[in-house]
Design a protein that fits this description.
2 copies of one chain form a homodimer. By secondary structure, the first copy, chain A, is α/β, with parallel strands linked by helices. In chain A, 34% of the residues lie in helices and 15% in strands. Chain A contains 9 helices and 13 strands. In chain A, strands 2-10-9-8-5-3-4 form a 7-stranded mixed beta sheet, with helices on both faces. Chain A has a two-stranded parallel sheet with strand order 1-12. Chains A and B meet through helix 1, helix 3, helix 4 and helix 6 of A and helix 1, helix 3, helix 4 and helix 6 of B.
């Protein structure tokens, strides 16, 4: 049986990408060894790195004003590196829209003053606060947001224009839609949802910001170490970068972000419709204006029915649908690699289950 | 033509490991998706993590007094994390035996006083200083050494007993021989030589040391974050951990470290003999007492002959033999995965080349 993997991350990758990586796993382009066995200083890996960088520029629309680097430690390491490097005024504005925003704020507090410009904590993170309610401060080093909230199922539908550089954690929706990169000072994303395997964060940083870093920051925690050495100061996670290269190849093949955005819109619309049309059998706590197209969270009338539903979907080859342990219920993560077929199959089961229960 | 990969790292992995990883790349144990697509919180990856941890305990002889964790950023990140977490007296002893020791010292200086207990810098890092010449200080937080020096081709033949916890960077010789782990406070190693793909460091740390960390260290840079959460505070590099599991499976299959040590001894002996018996055609700057069994560095009479030799070996399917850019010459990295056959082939070519030039 074909398995559909709705995990929130690490998540499924496009089938053709996995098959290509498998095919050349032991013998990369006739070199007699796998890409992960190649030196990071050799011409074969250099070509992979250059290709991946260029793909990201092409697909995501990243201008020369930005550097593209790969940093180990995931988004969680960025929560610390951002204030360590960029909080040059001693204060920064943060918008608190869930667990990941809060974690980013916790690390930033070690380095300076964290000002909550807006939050939805008071309503259990059920929406993204409207931009006109944000209280941005004049001397903030930057404004930090979380573009998609994996656990609570909310997502920014667009982005504000800010005076201080806007920094976005896009771990769970990067390259799922078109974004005007020029609005941002920095965009970062753990790779393990839309980009590749876990073990690195993609960091897109405006060149002028890199100079902010204070002197006494350790080498591996300075952005300049990565930007000045094209991610090759030390051995980078070569296999992860290679996989991002394959995934961005695939994005180009399927028509780029304009096309992916259409498919992602359609997938999410189908799922939310099944919820909205269920007469309350399925329900989502997320306000309509902030619904995530990547992580659709919903509940059933009782926990017993939820457990029963989870068994049914599993028996039908759909895994990873259990909600995050902090909120319970269901979560369907429908990143780029999830085909429409998987969502259709889930919706069919949801409708059947509702009729039978 | 079969290719023998003498790269210093990322390096070749055992053929059977690469083939097994390839076979189950898209469908891990019949789950319908690859291990790198599995959630790090699911039972399949949990089993991989537990298995890998146990393998390391079994193979390397790690007692319950130590925690085993996987930290992103390679050994270079450890250069900063060690002083950040463990330099509780404000000073530490370092033995400087080459580039990597120096880099570790540079980061430590950001956090306290670095005392050079011994060094071989004055003789171009051609040996490991004898233990009875070391000047260890009474109030050092720890003693830091580099067990094998990839660039200069030297290696500790045994280890001293120290009052302060001994911390060893074993990136390039971990699990290549038997080691008495109980002599150490901490052992760490970038994975990309003897253990698996690049993108993580294996850290084996004595439990009592973890409590030393000062309060204001960022979450992702605290050892306790990893030890208290079994490396699962955030998403770990799941594929890398899986690969270390396969590599340690392979070590068990071939008879454990006692057996690998014999093979590694024999491989190195063969290569050094070819150098020693060449009447000075091949020469190594490394003193006999400190010769590395992992990275054999040697020179030819002229740079022209070195270039010619590199062309010859490449034409014969041997790659990665060029020495590090900082020292020139040749470097044959003969980690665990390099079979005797590869070394024999290299030695045969060396002997032929010498006769013809």
């Amino acid at each position: 049986m074909k398995v559909f993997n709705f995990n929130a991350g690490p998540a499924m990758l496009p089938t053709s990408v996995m098959e290509r990586a498998q095919k050349e796993f032991c013998d990369y382009h006739g070199t007699g060894c796998g890409i992960l066995e190649h030196s990071h200083r050799g011409k074969d890996f250099q070509a992979v790195l250059d290709h991946t960088n260029q793909n990201i520029r092409d697909v995501f629309g990243v201008s020369d004003a930005y550097d593209i680097v790969y940093i180990q430690g995931g988004a969680s390491m960025q929560f610390a590196m951002i204030p360590m490097n960029l909080m040059n005024t001693g204060a920064a504005d943060y918008v608190d829209t869930g667990t990941w925003s809060s974690k980013a704020m916790k690390e930033a507090k070690l380095f300076g003053e964290v000002r909550v410009a807006a939050q939805s904590k008071d309503t259990k993170y059920d929406h993204i606060p409207a931009f006109d309610t944000w209280k941005l401060s004049d001397d903030a080093s930057y404004v930090h947001i979380t573009s998609n909230n994996t656990i609570y199922g909310t997502q920014y539908q667009d982005f504000p224009t800010t005076k201080a550089p806007l920094i976005a954690d896009m771990s769970s929706d990067i390259m799922s839609r078109r974004v005007d990169v020029s609005k941002f000072g920095m965009i970062y994303a753990g790779a393990q949802k839309n980009l590749g395997p876990s073990g690195l964060a993609l960091v897109i940083i405006r060149r002028d910001l890199v100079a902010r870093t204070p002197e006494k920051v350790p080498t591996m925690l300075k952005y300049a170490t990565y930007t000045e050495n094209n991610s090759l100061y030390n051995t980078p996670p070569t296999f992860g970068i290679y996989m991002i290269g394959l995934v961005t190849d695939w994005i180009k093949e399927v028509g780029g972000l304009a096309e992916l955005e259409k498919v992602n819109d359609a997938k999410a619309a189908l799922l939310y419709q099944a919820i909205d049309d269920s007469n309350g059998f399925y329900s989502t706590p997320v306000k309509k204006c902030s619904r995530s197209k990547m992580n659709v969270v919903f509940r059933l009338p009782t926990e017993e029915l939820e457990a029963k539903f989870l068994e049914l979907v599993k028996a039908n080859g759909m895994i990873g649908l259990k909600g995050h342990r902090s909120v319970g219920g269901m979560r369907a993560s429908i990143y780029n690699a999830m085909p429409m077929e998987g969502v259709e199959k889930l919706v069919t089961l949801m409708n059947e289950f509702r009729k039978n229960n």
